[in-house]
Amino acid sequence: MTHVLVTGGAGFIGCNFVRHLVRETDVRVTVLDKLTYASSEASLADLPADRVRLVVGDIVDEGLVDGLVATADVVVHFAAESHNDNSLTGPRIFVQTNIVGTFTLLEAVRRHDVRFHHVSTDEVYGDLELDDPDRFTEHTAYNPSSPYSASKAASDHLVRAWVRSFKVRATISNCSNNYGPWQHVEKFIPRQITELIEGRAPRVYGAGANVRDWIHADDHSSAVWRIITAGRIGETYLIGADGEQSNLEVVRHLNVLFDRDPDDFVQVADRAGHDLRYAINSTRLRSELGWRPRHENFHDGLARTVTWYREHEDWWRPVKAATEATYAQKGH
Ligand code: NAD
Ligand code: TDX
C-alpha cells in the first residue's frame, strides 16, 4: 500500500483530500500539521486509525520533516497560512510557513528522492478585469498582489527551481477558490452561512463586484490525485470548475436559501489591494488527464454546504465569536 504524507491535512482542503483518499483509494496517510488556529483535529477524528495517522508538528522543522519524508512514497503539500486578510496584518508567518516550509520539504524530498506535489493557488497570477475575455492558463505571468499570494508565488518558484536544478520529481497545481464542508468560518462562504444561521445579515467587502471562480473541495481533491497518479513530472496544472460568481451573486443566493430578501446585506470596509477577479482555464487538466468536476452546479453545492454547516454547529461554533471579534477590529 502506498504511503502518502499530507502536510496541512487538518485544514479545510487537506482534510477533504484525506477523506477523498480514504474513500477512493487504499493508500495509508500520515498527516503532518502544526494545528494552527485554522485547523481542527475534529476534521479527521472519525477516520480509521489504520489508514490515517496525525503527526503534530511544523513543516519548517527539518529533523521532523526529514524522518517523515524518508518513509513516504509521495508528499502532498497543502500546509500554508491561507488567509489574505491575515497576511495584511501579520505577513511574517506567511513567509516562514509558505516559503521556508516549502523549502524545507523540497530539501527533504531531494535527499530521499520522493515524489512531491505542491498545492498552490490561482492568486499567484494577480487579478483580471471583469470584462477580460482571457482566463488564467499555465502560461499566465506571475503577478501576485498580497503577502499571501506573493508567498505562494515564491513557493511555486522554489518548486520549479528544484525540478530543474535538482531533478526533484514534482508537480504543481494552482486552484481557484474552494468551498465545501470543514472550511474555517473566517472565509467568505462559511462566514456568511454562519452569520445567517445566527440571524445576522451577510457582510460584503466594498461594492461586492469582485468575482471568484468557485470549485467544490471534493473536485479539487480528485484533480490533485489525478495529477499525482497521471500528471507529467515538472508540469503545472490549473484546477477550476467554471464557477465564476461575483460576491454579490453569492450573498444574494445565500439570502434566498435562508428565505430572506436577496438584497439584505451589510457593506463593510474593503480589503486593501483587493483582487478584482480570478478565472481559471483548466483545459490542460481536462484534455491531458481527462479530469472533470463532479459538482458542476454551484447553487446545488452551496445549498449542500449550508446544510452541512447547519448540521455541524458543534464544529464551528467554538471559533465563531473570536473570528467575528477579529473582523470587527478591522472594520470588516
Ligand atoms: P487552511 O488554512 O484551512 O489549512 C491550512 C492547514 O495547514 C492547517 O491545518 C494548518 O494547521 C496547517 N499549517 C499551517 N502552518 C503550518 C506549518 N508551519 N506546519 C504544518 N502545518 C501547518 O487552508 P486551506 O484553505 O485548506 O488551503 C490549503 C492549501 O490550498 C494552501 O496551500 C492554499 O494556499 C491552497 N489553496 C487554497 C484555496 C482555497 O480556496 N482555500 C484555493 C487554492 C489553493
Ligand atoms: O466577509 C467577507 N466578505 C467578503 O466580501 C469575507 C471574509 C470575504 N469577502 C470577499 C473577499 C473576496 O473577494 O469574498 C471573496 C473571498 O474572500 P476569501 O474567502 O477571503 O478568499 P480569497 O481572498 O479569494 O482567497 C481564497 O481563495 C484563494 C483562499 O482564502 C486562498 O487561500 C486561496 O488561495
From TrEMBL:
Annotated ranges, domain NAD(P)-binding: 5-302
Keyword check for Repeat: no
This enzyme's EC code(s): 4.2.1.46
Domain of life: Bacteria
Signal peptide (residue range): none
Keywords: Lyase, NAD
InterPro entries: dTDP_Gluc_deHydtase, NAD(P)-bd_dom, NAD(P)-bd_dom_sf
A Pfam family: GDP_Man_Dehyd
SUPFAM superfamilies: NAD(P)-binding Rossmann-fold domains
Cofactor: NAD(+)
Gene3D superfamilies tied to this protein: NAD(P)-binding Rossmann-like Domain, UDP-galactose 4-epimerase, domain 1
NCBIfam families: dTDP_gluc_dehyt (TIGR01181)
Family statement: Belongs to the NAD(P)-dependent epimerase/dehydratase family. dTDP-glucose dehydratase subfamily.
Protein name: dTDP-glucose 4,6-dehydratase
Organism name: Nocardioides yefusunii
The organism's taxonomic lineage, starting at the top: Bacteria, Bacillati, Actinomycetota, Actinomycetes, Propionibacteriales
The gene coding this protein: rfbB
